[in-house]
Design a protein that fits this description.
alpha/beta, 7-stranded mixed beta sheet
């Protein structure tokens, strides 16, 4: 049996709506994480921004969550997609745990995620949730983009393993969803991941389908292959996607019932809250009973920090637009 201290969890948090999501994710892990419920957790603010609300910091203390604020970035401070690799780099320096688990804030733990446990011959686990901007091969619209970015990071595209996506069962070149993954800390994967992300940003190559929106996800598999990590795919139960945009197409009550980790996207915000709770009532009634009194997500940050955050986001957006105009679209 594993010891909780062998696994350390890390997530990002910033002032505003992300505070509410992060707290709810962490509390669900503490309640339904099974053998992971008491694992060390580090919440990281990876760039300049308003302070977290005292309510959030008090909740972190009650939930035994460590918190650090990284106020400097070497470059691309505007890029929220880089928050993830910077945060896990901080976690590698902070923890001595044998394994690091990254978790997005829009996750809800509803059962013990036992597939996160790495075997003796494994260094990395993640889920290939769906095709998204993955490529099925030479005739795929996304293939030129993947050929270009593989060249950028010094990989042959044929070195990417073929995998089958969980949701739509498409055969694609390796492409993970970055919402949740675990790896051996001794592999120094975090640095490889950050370097790969920065390499893609420096290349100024972006996808004609998604722009730079999924840079962190694209980089995840590329970094894993570059580092020679031994890997295993998580099944859909450990990254079950549930959101308003895909509900009609993807929802399956049987699959939700089997889920241990729900990647709920926008499903806990007011506009989709009732649908989400109704589905959980049928599949995870104990979780639904916990959530109902909490209500839909909302931004609880103090008004002055919401104003500051809004202004800062506008500056970041302007910087992002300048960057995108300088990019080559493939």
């Amino acid at each position: 049996m594993i010891e909780a201290k062998q696994y350390a969890f890390v997530c990002c948090v910033e002032s505003g709506w992300l505070e509410s999501q992060t707290l709810r994710m962490i509390e669900s892990l503490r309640r339904w994480g099974g053998k992971f419920a008491s694992a060390p957790i580090l919440a990281v603010t990876p760039r300049m921004g308003p302070p977290l609300a005292s309510k959030t910091l008090n909740a972190f203390e009650a939930l035994q969550v460590d918190y650090i604020h990284l106020k400097t970035r070497d470059r691309y401070g505007w890029a929220k997609f880089l928050n993830k690799p910077y945060a896990i780099c901080a976690a590698e320096d902070y923890f001595s745990s044998e394994y690091i688990v990254w978790v997005d804030s829009d996750l809800l733990f509803v059962g013990e995620p036992e597939q996160l446990i790495l075997g003796d011959g494994e260094d990395f686990v993640a889920c290939a949730s769906d095709r998204n901007i993955g490529t099925t091969g030479v005739d795929d619209i996304n293939e030129p983009y993947w050929q270009n970015i593989c060249q950028v990071v010094g990989l042959e595209i044929e070195s990417l393993p073929w995998i089958v996506t969980e949701r739509d069962r498409d055969r694609i070149r390796l492409y993970w969803n970055s919402g949740i993954f675990a790896y051996r800390r001794s592999t120094n994967f975090a640095r490889q991941y950050l370097d790969t992300c920065l390499c893609l940003f420096d290349s100024q190559v972006i996808s004609r389908v998604s722009g730079m929106f999924f840079n962190d996800q694209v980089s995840l598999g590329l970094a894993m292959v570059s580092g020679g990590l031994r890997w295993r795919g998580l099944d859909e139960s450990h990254n079950y996607s549930f959101g308003s945009k895909t509900f009609a197409q993807w929802y399956c009550g049987e699959n939700l019932r089997a889920a241990k980790v729900i990647h709920y996207h926008d499903a806990m915000w007011a506009w989709f809250w009732d649908v989400f709770i109704d589905c959980l009532n049928k599949t995870h009634p104990d979780v639904a009973d916990w959530l109902k009194p909490l209500g839909a997500m909302k931004n609880d940050a103090p008004l002055q920090w919401r104003v500051v955050k809004k202004l800062l986001d506008q500056v970041y957006k302007q910087q992002e637009n300048i960057y995108i105009k300088s990019c080559r679209v493939v």
